[in-house]
Amino acid sequence: MRIVALGGGHGLYATLTAMRYLSPDVTAVVTVADDGGSSGRLRAELGVIPPGDLRMALSALMSAPAALADRASRPGRLDRAGHELWTNTFQHRFGGYGALAGHPIGNLLLAGLTEVTGSPVAALDELIDVFDIDGRVLPMSTVPLEIEADVSGLESDPRISRCIRGQVAVATTPGKVRRVRLLPAEPPACAEAVEAIRGADVVVLGPGSWFSSVIPHVLVPDQLNALRETAARKMLFVNLAPEPGETTGFSVERHLHVLHAHADVFRVDDVIVDAASVPAGRERDHLVRAAASFGAQLHVGDLAVPGRHVHDPEKVATLVNELCEGELGR
Q1: Which of 89, 217, 245, 256 is the most exposed place for a label (fewest CB within 10 A)?
Q2: How does pLDDT run across 246-260, given as a tens digit for each residue?
């Protein structure tokens, strides 16, 4: 299968790990609006797209158990031990208190290669080739983006919203996020990402930070058009729990409603939630109707790592495989 996974951060990392159990042909399409930490410093100093979530996606494809198993049976330029060493090095953050403190080595490699090649896509493809990684990592847009949100609950009058700009500020706001926008408005899509979506067999969106890693993917016009027109089976994974700051107090149903409010033309085939996050009964019945607003069927399963609000990659892979083989068909 040709699989495309959309998202950012730790949510996309888990999805990519899961998808590598199903296919070596996995393309990650990554949000590029981060403005905090090492990524924020590099985009401010060098004008590059923030490399942090791109680095995480590369690392996921490098270190997925299925990828390491493939390497054990397929000798390449790096043996398994060497591959694991470079995977760990790629994620390593410099210590100390100087200018390099806190920067992951992978972020610096990506930023440097982008300057040398003149293209973030070329830089990512070079690293894919150097580390002999199956799959591909692409940015959602080839320009750095900003997130701007309308947030209520910050003024004495709850009807008044305040405009908050920046991914970190939006993610940590004590108010309630109502709506997000991308700056620049209607940003250019990455042509290679659009092509991958159009040619995919399966497209997966989520889980992840809902307003800063998931919803932005439907705010890039050319990418949204590709998502509407692709013949791929489209699956939406909803978060296991509300995320402090961004979605505090949100139900699973509310997650779907806000995504639909941002792109009511967006359609998916399957909405997938963890059974523990939506008890059987009236709440789940409401969720069936919310899924139907996307033209989707609801699927509920055991998807979490026991005792944690984290998706289990093997459980996710099993469910996706069953859907694709028709065992949980529409």
Answers
A1: 89
A2: 888 899 999 999 999
